[in-house]
Design a protein that fits this description.
This protein has 151 residues and is an alpha+beta fold. The chain is built from 2 helices and 7 strands; from the N terminus they run H-E-E-E-E-E-E-E-H.
Length: 151
C-alpha cells in the first residue's frame, strides 16, 4: 500500500511539473503576442487623440529646402513623443521616430499657423493661432530666428 501511495505522489508531482512547464512554454509563446497587441492598441489610441488631428490640419508636404534636422522630445498636451524636427523656410516638419511611426504620419506646420516662444532656456513652445490644439513644447531650442524674421 505504501508503494502505491509513494508512486501515486510522484506521479502527481510529475504531472504537476509537466503542467507547469507546459504553462510556461505557452506563456512564452503568448506573452510577445499579447505585448505586441497592447503596444499597437496604445499606439493607435495615442495617434487618434493627439497626432492625427494635427496631421489632418497640417499634412506633410515635400520641401526641398530643409534647413535643420534634430531629434527632440516633444510634449503634446499630456503626451510625450520623440520626434524628428526639421526647420525650413515654410514651416516646421515633425515626424515620429521609426519605433512610433506606425499610425503617426509626418506633419508640416507652417510658420503662419503658430506662435513660437522660448519660455525657458532650451525649450521651444509652439502655440497655434487659429486652431484649438494643445501647445507643443520641444525640449530643445530651435534655430529659427531667420525664418521668423524673413529673408
Amino acid at each position: 500500500m505504501r508503494i502505491i501511495i509513494y508512486i501515486g505522489v510522484h506521479a502527481f508531482a510529475a504531472y504537476v511539473l509537466c503542467m507547469m512547464v507546459s504553462f510556461i512554454i505557452d506563456g512564452l509563446i503568448w506573452f510577445p503576442a499579447l505585448f505586441l497587441g497592447m503596444y499597437l492598441v496604445i499606439l493607435f489610441i495615442i495617434s487618434m487623440l493627439f497626432w492625427l488631428p494635427l496631421h489632418r490640419a497640417f499634412p506633410a508636404r515635400p520641401d526641398k529646402k530643409l534647413k535643420r534636422h534634430i531629434m527632440v522630445n516633444a510634449t503634446f498636451g499630456v503626451c510625450r513623443f520623440v520626434v524628428n524636427a526639421t526647420v525650413s523656410e515654410t514651416g516646421l516638419r515633425l515626424a515620429a521616430i521609426p519605433l512610433y511611426r506606425l499610425f503617426h504620419p509626418p506633419i508640416h506646420i507652417p510658420w503662419s499657423a503658430i506662435d513660437v516662444t522660448f519660455p525657458k532656456p532650451r525649450v521651444t513652445r509652439l502655440s497655434f493661432k487659429e486652431r484649438d490644439f494643445p501647445d507643443i513644447h520641444l525640449q530643445r531650442k530651435l534655430v529659427i530666428e531667420k525664418e521668423l524674421t524673413g529673408p
